[in-house]
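Journal club prep — side note

Before the paper discussion, L.F. wants everyone to see what a predicted structure for a comparable chain looks like in token form. Sequence:
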Amino acid sequence: MSLGLALCYRELEPIFNKVAHMEHLWKKAGFDSLSPNLAPVMKKPVKPEALSGWGKYLQGDLTL
């Protein structure tokens, strides 16, 4: 099924440039060995109240 939506490179180029810049900043910050697509996981138990709602992200339930 087609929605009849076609994007040309001119429309996508700013997005590609932004992604390339973000990847550059990620590597420049020294995060080369980490994947920005993975959710962090706490190695030691932490009380949920101490996480102020961030527990679902820090336990790997959701990615950012």
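L.F.'s comment for the group: DSSP finds three helices and no strands in the chain. Keep this in mind when we get to the figures.
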